[in-house]
Structure formats: C-alpha cells, structure tokens
Structure prediction request, 347 residues.
Amino acid sequence: MNKSQSIIILGIESSCDDTAAAIIKDGKLLANVVATQNVHKLYGGVVPELASRAHQQNIIPVVDQAIKQAGITKEEISAIAFTSGPGLMGSLLVGVSFSKAFALGMDIPMIEVNHMQGHILAHFIETSGTSESQNSVPSFPLLCLTVSGGHTQIVLVKNHFDMTVIGETIDDAAGEAFDKAAKIMGLPYPGGPLIDKYATAGNPKAFTFTKPQIQELNFSFSGLKTGFMNFINNETAKNPNFVEENKADICASIQATIIEILLIKLKKAAKQTNCKQIAIAGGVSANSGLRAALKSLEQELGWKVFIPKFEYCTDNAAMIAITGYYKYLKKDFVSQAISPKARYALK
Prediction:
C-alpha cells in the first residue's frame, strides 16, 4: 500500500470507445492518457463488441503510460477509481475487471464512479502548478447542463456529492441528434464535430426546424431528428446536390436549433432555482456554437459560466480520478463484489 502522505489516485475510464487512464496527486492532475478507437468509423457508430476487444488491448499500455508520465511508481498509488456506469456493458467490464485485479494485486481500495458525476466534477480538475482560483472553479450551488451522445441533463449541484437531475431528455440525447443529423447528410462518423466545423461558415437562420414543446425542464430530440430527415429527403428529391450546395447553412441551422432547445430549458432552470453559477459538461460541451452562446448569456443574464477545457469534455480518466480523489477523502470505497451497470442513475 501507499506509505507516503500524498493521496495518489489512478483513474480508469472505459464506458464507451475511449480507453483512458489518469493520475491525480493531492487533487492535481499529473497524467491524462486516452487511446481512441478508430475502427468504429468504418461502421458509422460504436460497435460494442469491437469496443470491448479494443479496451482489452489498450488498457494495460494506457495505464503504464499514465504512470510513467506522472513520474510515479505503481506502489505509490493510494486507490484506483473506475467508471462503473452508465455505459456499454462490455466496455465497462474491461475497466472494472482491470481495476479489481489491480486493487487486489496492490492491496489498495477501489472507488466506483458514476460517469455522469465525473463529467460534472471535471470542472474541479487542477493541473500541476495551478490553484483552484486560477482555474476559476465554480462554487456551489451550480447548474450543470450535461450533454453527450447518450445523455442530456440539467443537474442542480449542491456539493461534490449532492446532485439532483431536474431536467432530462425523454427520448434521444443532444449528441445523438447531432450525429444522426450528420449521418442523414452523409457525413462520416462521428458527425457532431463536423457539423460544428461546417456551421462556422453557414447562416444559422437559413433553414427553420421545429422545436419540441416539452413540459417543465425536460428535453426531446426524436421529433427534431424526424423533421430534419424529412426536410433533407424532400429537398434532395428536388435537387440531388442540395446537401452539398447548402452544407454550411444546413449545419449552422440544425446546430443553432439544437443549441436553442438546450438553452431555453437551461434559462428556465436558472430562473426557477435562482442559480447564477452555470456549467456545461459532456462531449457536446466541446461544441463551439454552444460555448459561444453560453458566453453571450453570461453578459446578458449576469451568469458566471464555466466551460471545461476541450480535453475534459469528451470521455477521459482525469474526471474519474478527480471524483475518486474526493471520494477517497470520504473513504467511500467499494468491495470486490462490485459490478458494472449499463444504466446508472445520477443521485
């Protein structure tokens, strides 16, 4: 076991198609390594069986690289934190199984982390040589709009462990809507970043798409996807080159629509909770249009907006390690009986 006074956490993330390992020492990030799987581009989406096989190949090299980058030895590690869900079961199994074996071999405790909690706590990652004030870490309570390929949620965060989902999608996630729109347009996977790229040169008001009328703070994107597909089909029937000739405007318009749907509910949530500390998290928080829209609302509504660095938006182990660090301080450990959960509600 770790004999030093420092708390060193090894974080493991394997919920989807990125194999990641990170090292955090006393709350500061020393290493953050991600192995991305490119094989899924051939199939237009993540293939679970291929993802789990790639995790098996990648996890030991990724952990080894993280330990070397951090300049520590495995004997110095105080605990191992890992994503136990939500995610793809086969992918999660690889990370959980490795964590169990590592913890058993090194005689250190295990810390399970909810993937969505990790995304939110990514805002509290410190890098070596910086302090929380320099990093502009949010204070509590805060509202976090968590948007990814699998989740869209508005979370009221009272502290590192008291999180309440006050709004969420009733069907598809915002990230999935981006990727599906890109697929309908014939763009390669993953399409969300490509829509963001092409949108910068387009007119966001060129085309109008229907916005769902969903009660309270919940979201829906299934109707938008259907409407967008019908729009593209109708226009290409009239002009087979419609998408290519109008690519930038189409991308700008669908992106603006998705962002508006997100921000309408976020503004409503901020008003209901009287919360001015606003954060975003998850893969879609890397979207430049969403980031710019939030920054403009900061001025307009008097919000204090927190946007994570790009490397902490998509799946990464730094967010798992920092969550593990805070859980370590509480001695919130789990036993070897722990199992991964494909569905894991944020509490």
